[in-house]
Give the backbone structure.
Amino acid sequence: METIINLIIQLIAGVAGGNAAGAALKDYNLGNLDNTIAGAIGGVGGGQILQALIPAIASAAGGDLDLGAIVGQIVGGGAGGAILTIIAGLVKNMTASQQTRCGSRRSMRVTILHRARAILLGGGKAAAHDWAADVRA
C-alpha cells in the first residue's frame, strides 16, 4: 500500500514540477499536455531514484507515512518532473531548429550529439557552435 501512495505522490509532484518548469522557462515549454506527460514520467523516475539513494524516505519506521517521507517524495518527484521536462524541451528545440537548417538526418544527429557534449562538458558558446564544422564535413 505504501508503494502505491509513494507513486501517487511522485506522480502528482512530477506533474506539478513539469508544468512549473514549462511555465517558468518559456524556451523549454512543451505545451500543457506534453509538460504534464514529461513531468509525470520524470516525477516517478526522479522519486524512485531518490528513494533508492535515500531509503529513509521510502517509508517511516512503523509502517506509516510521516511528514519527512512525504516531503522527500514531493521533492524527488517535483525535481524529476522539472528536469525531464527541461530535457525534453531542449531536445525538441534542437531538433526543430535543425530540421530547418539541415537536410539530412545524419547531420541532425551529429549536431544534437555535439551540442549535448558541449553543454555537458561546459564548453560554453564556442563549443556549442563548433558543431557547424562537423556538419559541413
In short: The CA atoms of residues 19 and 31 lie 9 Å apart. The chain has two domains: 2-90, 102-137.
